[in-house]
Amino acid sequence: MKKKTLKATLFSLVIGLLMLVSACGATEKATSGGTDSKEKQKLRVVTDAAYAPMESMDGDKIVGFDVDVLDAVLKEAGYDYELVHVGWDPLFVELKSKRADIGISSITIDEDRKQTYDFSVPYFESINKILVPEDSGIQSGADLKGKTIAVQNGTTGQAVAEGILGKNNKDIKKFENNVLAIMELLKGGADAVVADNAVVEEYVKNNPNKKLKVVTDSSFPSEFYGMMLPKGSKIKEDIDKAIKKVVENGTYANMYKKVFGSEPDLKELEKQY
Question: Boundaries of each Solute-binding protein family 3/N-terminal domain copy (predicted)?
C-alpha cells in the first residue's frame, strides 16, 4: 500500500511539472511582444472637435469623419487609443512636447509643419472655399481684395487670405475656430470666411435659414490631410501601412460615402503616397 502510494505520488509530481512548464511557455508567448503586446499599447490622440463634419462634439462624445478614419486605422494597426479634445493650438503643443502620440483634426500636410512634426501618408483631399451671404457679389478669390475676411487662426484658410490681402493685413480677422469665424460673418463683422470645403459646405447644408452660399475658386490649390505625429515617431510606419490598407480594402470609401454622399477620388489620394 505504501509502495503503491509512492508511485502515484511520483506520477502526480511528473504531471504537475509538465503542466507548470507548459504554463510558463504560454506566459512567455503572451508577453513576448509582437501583435499581442502592441494591442495593449494605448495611444493618446488629440483633436480640435469644432470642425464638423470632420470632428465635433455629440454630447461628451467626439464624432466625425476623422474619428471614423482614426478608429479604422488604429484597429488595423493593432493599437488601442484615447481620443481627447484639446483645441487647435494646444494640439500642436502636445505633439511637439510628445505628450500626445497622434493629432488628427483635418490637419493639412505642408512644408512648414513638416519642419517640426512627422505626418502619415495623406488620408483626405481638401480645398479652401469662400463662404459668403447669398446676396454677396463675391464670386472668386480676387473679389476678396478690399474686403474683410474671417478665418481660423493658424490654418491654410488664413494662408489663402494672406495670399490675397497680404500678411498681417488688418482686414483678416483670426478666430480660435471656424464656428467663431462664421458667427462673425453672420453678424456682419466680415464679408467672407475662407475655410476647408468640407466645413463650409456642411454648414450651408445644415443651416439653410442662414442664407449663405459657397464660392469656389479653381486657383486655390488642393491640400491633403494627414495624421500628425511627433518628430521621429516610431509608429509612423504602422500608421502608414494601416491607412493604405483601409483605403485598399474599401473601408475608407464606405466611410466617405456615408458622410459626404459621394465617391472619394482614391487615385488622386494614392498619388500622394
Answer: 42-263
State the alpha helices, DSSP H only, in the chain: 2-30, 34-39, 65-77, 88-96, 111-114, 156-165, 178-186, 197-206, 236-248, 251-260, 266-271
Task: Match 511637439 to its residue by C-alpha cell.
Answer: 96
The position carrying cell 480660435 is 176
What was the pLDDT predicted at 164?
97
- Distance from C-alpha of 58 to C-alpha of 118, rounded to nearest angstrom: 30
10 Å CB burial of residue 251 (0-12, 13-18, 19+) is middle
pLDDT digits (tens, 9 = 90+) for 160-196: 999 999 999 999 999 999 999 999 999 999 999 999 9
Claim: this prediction has a pTM higher than 0.85: no
Q: Compute the distance between CA of residue 99 and CA of residue 92 in angstroms, rounded to an integer.
A: 10
**H-helix or E-strand spanning residue 56:** strand 55-58
Give the chain's residues under pLDDT 50: 1-36, 38
Give CA–CA dist 216/271, Å, rounded: 24
